[in-house]
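Weekly puzzle thread! Below is a chain. First person to post its structure in token form gets bragging rights.
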Amino acid sequence: MKRNKNILIWGGGLRSQNIVNKIKNTKYFINKKLNIKYIFDNSLKKLKFKTNIIFSNKLSELKKIIKDSSFFIVAIGSEHGKARYLISKELIKNNLKPLNNISNHAVIDSTVIFGEGFQAEDGSIINCNAKIGDFCIVNTNATIDHHTEIGHGCHVMPGATILGNIKIGNFVTIGANATILPHLNIGDGSFIGAGSVVTKNIKKNEIVKGNPAKKIRSTSHKIDLSPFKK
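Winning reply:
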């Protein structure tokens, strides 16, 4: 069956606005000539920005929107990487195809391997032989050095520096301007605070901050997938 060219953006916050503003200028979309037709966010009464794109917050309309869409981007950032990942998987189950959103001003070495639904912002740099999982965000001016492996649903926030030969698990958030030193393991679901310097391994679901980074507490990831059960 021939696909239409309609894109659904899931999430109506500021990241959604950023995607809408930039998407027409990215390498990925210039040749595709796709149409951003819908923004869906059942947590908002209305969008915080002006656009001609159709907005819906009604669960009763979701099935129709999905049926009329062929592609999607999940515009959920911050520390909500697991939600971004699981919502994306639900949309794939509904026969939508994830799109990458890679800035013209990102620098990605030809040896880098990244998964589906990848988002790379202006000034981000990813060096040789890095591997990045599905539905990850590498934000503005973040740097990922050689032979680093990053799991699914991660978010490397603006200005963060990940040095070489580091293994990062799934659903990890690395705060703005944080630095991770080489040869470390960062556990699933962990959160590294802004400006922190990580000098030792981080365990699963730990929140750390400071220089050197120290554990503050543990965290959990609660995900609402109820829209797909209606």
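Puzzle host: Confirmed. Bonus trivia for everyone else. The helical segments are 14-22, 27-30, 62-67, 81-93.
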